[in-house]
Amino acid sequence: MKKKKVTSVNVRSFNPTANLIFNIVIAIFAISCVVPFFFVIMISLTSEGSLAANGYRFWPKEFSLEAYRYIFQGAMSQRIIHALGVTDDCQCNNDVIICLCHFSFQLSI
Question: Would you say 44 and 67 are in contact if contact means Cβ atoms under 8 Å apart?
């Protein structure tokens, strides 16, 4: 049996208007996913007094690193390091358990 020669390939696509609408919807979704993270970062860089006086803003009137100083200095830093260690231990244990389960499943086949 002789193979047929392919001369052209038909690719289905949306018309330009539908493509534009889909791109706009996806762009709005992407922006709605990114904006809250940006907002939280900006709030963490705002001074406490500015938050009390002006409320939450996308671009703070006064920048401050006091929140990060509080977290990484003193007793709070030890708690965060401990929490990160517990999280890391749990994740490593889960990885080992999953690998052992996959290995045992492969042996049983």
Answer: yes
* Dihedral angle sign, alpha carbons of residues 14, 15, 19, 21: negative
Residue keyed to tokens 């409320």: 55
Give the tokens for residue 11.
């690719």
Q: Taking a C-beta distance cutoff of 8 angstroms, is the pair 62, 48 a contact?
A: no
Q: How far is CA 83 from CA 6, 75, 87, 95, 101, in A?
A: 60, 13, 6, 18, 27
Is residue 90 helix, strand or coil? helix
pTM metric for this prediction? 0.57
Q: How far is CA 9 from the centre of its chain?
A: 38
pLDDT digits (tens, 9 = 90+) for 45-92: 998 888 888 888 888 888 888 888 888 887 778 888 888 889 999 899
